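Suppose you are handed a protein chain with no further information: no name, no annotation, nothing but its sequence. What can you learn? This example shows the usual starting point.
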Amino acid sequence: MNFHYHLLINPAAGSGNASKKANQLIDLFDQHNYTYTPYYTTYAGEEKEIVARLVNLLTPWDEEMLQRSGDEPYHLLIVIGGDGTLHQVVNQFYLTGIELPVSYLPAGSGNDFARGIGLSRQVEEAFKQITAASRPQKINVLLYEEKIKEEYGLVLNNVGIGLDALIVATTNASSSKKWLNKYKLGSASYALYLIKALLTQKTFPIMIEVNGHQQEFNRTFLCTTTNIPYFGGGVPIAPMADPKKEVIDLVIIEKPNIFAIVRLLLQLLRKKHTTNKHYCHFSSSRIRIVSVVPQHGQADGETLGQRSYDLYFSTGSQYIWYADI
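A reasonable first move is to predict its three-dimensional structure. Written in structure tokens, the prediction is:
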């Protein structure tokens, strides 16, 4: 197929790392004589406006595209930024009711989505995966509806209440994140605030409903509904999660004492934490979570605020354009 690539670039992502990666990708497009048009965001949220202008130009996917011929190009959007940028783009697709494939060059701090689906974080390798693909891959996503504030949307990675959300809120507000990103240590910023969050996060009660059965947890420390194995820049919180399966994975950790926390962290580093007695895992196509005590929340690394939640999750899909190489 003949492609016209539309590059949506968030130059601020990764504390400027996205701008550098975008320049490298553009150099590769020039070297191979690919047709492309770049669009740069200049303020938070502008990616939604850019997508709104492009939706009628971008090409939907169907299998008949493989037989298409002629000079008419296939218009494909490539997002260059972090997981938060990609989150905003696919949510704009979802909220406007338009199903469009999207490609991605990860250039943020955590890049958990790319890690989860096997998309390279190196520019040249990602370029090969994008341009070698003849069709997009269907990836599972989480659809959510929050009843208290009547919000709904799509999540590629995970929604967290408690510990991971506190880490996200603290990290995103910190000055050290920019400094660490400068030296390609973005994931370390999560680790820096993990210790603080472990000491400050209080337990809270939640109610979950999975497969028609309700269960209560009174000493919840972390509650993460996830589509991929990772959060926080590569922490394998749910190693059993698979973004190509239509299932939701829910991880709940009840707060142990300080000695058990150390043991849990050591197990986490060795991916042995799923056997810890404080670790609970559930999987289903539909899940409800109620947290009446206000807590920090996050969705794909974007803060949701400190509040109560009544969340309903189901599964959906999003086409991501890349090849397994």
